[in-house]
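Re: the 170-residue chain
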Amino acid sequence: MNVKEFNRLIKTYRYDKKSVNRIYTFYYPRIVWHLNRSYDIDVAEAAAKELFLQLFLVEIKYYIHKPTVWMMAEAERLAAKKGKKKEKTVKPEAVYMLESEDGFAELHDALDKLDDESFRIIEMIYWEGYNQREIAEILRIEHAAVRKKHSRALKKIGKLLDKRKETIGD
């Protein structure tokens, strides 16, 4: 969803079911996923639902230049009121699931060697479906930095996998 579309939809959110549906279906899963990284799923879902309910109560009169950042910040604020943050996990569950499947242990090892920010970018693109611009907004870094880190992370993973194949082949 681009900035213009979001702002057009948010203006009619209180009166138009299509606007509600479009914003909800686009943002709800992303917000829950984002909050669930720091809070229990119950808190994440409750905060996301409350955010969408609050959008009915207030009329947004200003133009929101970074809608994803705005939505995530509002949801984070609500989640902080609802519960305490859970202890941070190092890698997502999906990576540990890869380890148990044949042929994916090498990929798991390569992903494990990435720095945290590069790993986060790979995770957001391939597991969560964010595009690079959305990631830049969420992480509050330049789009060019996301593009560069993504490219470098893919090259590093490729090199590590190639090295692994060479050592196995010898």
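The radius of gyration is 19 Å.
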